[in-house]
Amino acid sequence: MTTIYHNPACGTSRNTLAMIRNAGIEPTVIEYLTSPPDRATLVKLIADAGLTVRAALRDKCEPYEQLGLAEDRFSDEELLDFMGQYPILINRPFVVTELGTRLCRPSEVVLDILSAAQKAAFSKEDGEAVVDAQGRRLV
């Protein structure tokens, strides 16, 4: 089973989802802005991906600056509180497969945890080739 915590407005998230589908996998898609993970799930995603809470925090969005989150004075618990209150602060996309959990930034990180090979050539939305016609990773 493959699950992606997805934001359809994000190019990296769209590219990641497209690579999952290019492997012939139809994932469970959770649009985390409208259906955010609960705290326990978020903590598990972050831990399973081998990240710190701060590394899972998105810093290129409005509440980040307003809340002063760049300052190093917040505990992990406080950062998780903010992520729960403002799901836009959760970096994306997180992908969970039977081979592991990753924050797929850049999007081709997803290739490390897919159980199936790419079925066709794949280029990101910006034109960067990621997979050749034989399904081999280029980057």
Automatic annotation (TrEMBL):
PROSITE patterns in UniProt: ARSC
UniProt keyword terms in alphabetical order: Arsenical resistance, Oxidoreductase
EC number: 1.20.4.1
Highest taxon in the source lineage: Bacteria
Gene Ontology terms, MF aspect: arsenate reductase (glutaredoxin) activity
Enzymatic reactions: [glutaredoxin]-dithiol + arsenate + glutathione + H(+) = glutathionyl-S-S-[glutaredoxin] + arsenite + H2O
Entries under CDD domains matching the protein: ArsC_ArsC
UniProt cross-references to SUPFAM superfamilies, sorted A to Z: Thioredoxin-like (SSF52833)
Main enzyme class: oxidoreductase
Family membership: Belongs to the ArsC family.
Protein name: Arsenate reductase
Gene behind the chain: arsC
